[in-house]
Specification:
single chain; about 270 residues; alpha/beta; nine-stranded mixed sheet; two-stranded antiparallel ribbon; 9 helices; about 15% strand; globular
């Protein structure tokens, strides 16, 4: 059975990606996102070509101008940290803080009954913190119903909106060594997260296990542990993507290109 992610307006699902830095979060997120026709990535890390290279591969626009979110189907919006910190400016036009407000409102402008635009918050402890911009919170709580589901990526669950962690239907978790992060995630997901401390990270001597991860679906009592992410090779039909926990029927997202998800054991 494949992991199936709903994207249709009115039934779109939210995703959460958690794990230590360089554990594979962005790689998996990009592999899933690259199959969709409409998305906006809020890139606050701006690390080298992590998102710029992805944008080039998928004919996306890289911009710091909120107006481009309304002009183009695929946009990597480079968030200026100063606009995130200028909270008084969020409600004052012609301030650097209002740029963040305008960017979020521009995503809502894209809402439609005809299609889905995914809004990606990366890194969420910057763009979707415990006390986030009201419009960012509205995207998390109301966006999916408008065809604007939020996909959230973070390495620090203690500093991220509790709504984003608890409301995401799918959680993909890589190695999470910080005990406090595991406890916070367990509280918000309603499932024991100690397994995540047993996953190996990108610096492990066991190369064969690097980038392994686990998947949790809202309401389930267990995680399903997966083999390390495998990239490369021919695209496989959705019926051949191995999985373990998502009940049918569901609307199938286009098959992630060059991605294989293989569970290694029964749910734990």
């Amino acid at each position: 059975m494949a992991i199936q992610i709903r994207t249709a307006p009115g039934e779109a699902e939210r995703l959460l990606f958690v794990g230590v830095t360089r554990s594979g979060k962005t790689t998996l997120l990009q592999a899933l996102l690259g199959q969709l026709s409409s998305w906006v990535v809020f890139d606050s890390k701006r690390l080298g070509r992590e998102w710029e290279g992805f944008a080039e591969q998928h004919q996306a626009v890289v911009s710091q101008n909120p107006a481009d979110i309304r002009r183009h189907e695929r946009v990597v919006f480079q968030v200026d940290t100063r606009s995130l910190m200028d909270r008084p400016g969020w409600v004052r036009k012609e301030t650097i803080g209002y740029i963040w407000t305008e960017a979020l409102l521009s995503v809502f402008w894209r809402g439609s009954d005809d299609g889905t635009t995914v809004a990606v918050f990366d890194e969420a402890m910057h763009t979707l913190p415990v006390n986030p911009h009201p419009e960012a919170l509205r995207l998390q709580t109301q966006g999916a119903g408008l065809g604007l589901p939020g996909w959230t990526a973070t390495q620090a669950p203690l500093f991220v909106s509790t709504v984003a962690m608890s409301q995401a239907e799918h959680c993909f978790a890589f190695a999470t060594f910080h005990a406090g992060y595991r406890r916070e995630l367990a509280l918000r997901r309603g499932v024991d997260c100690e397994l995540l401390g047993q996953l190996v990270g990108p610096k492990s001597d066991d190369v064969s296990r690097r980038y392994e991860f686990a998947h949790h679906y809202t309401g389930e009592e267990t995680w399903t542990r997966f083999q390390p992410l495998q990239l490369g090779g021919a695209r496989r039909p959705v019926s051949e993507v191995d999985s373990g926990t998502i009940p049918e029927p569901q609307t199938v997202v286009p098959d992630p290109d060059n991605v294989t998800l293989t569970p290694v054991e029964e749910p734990v």
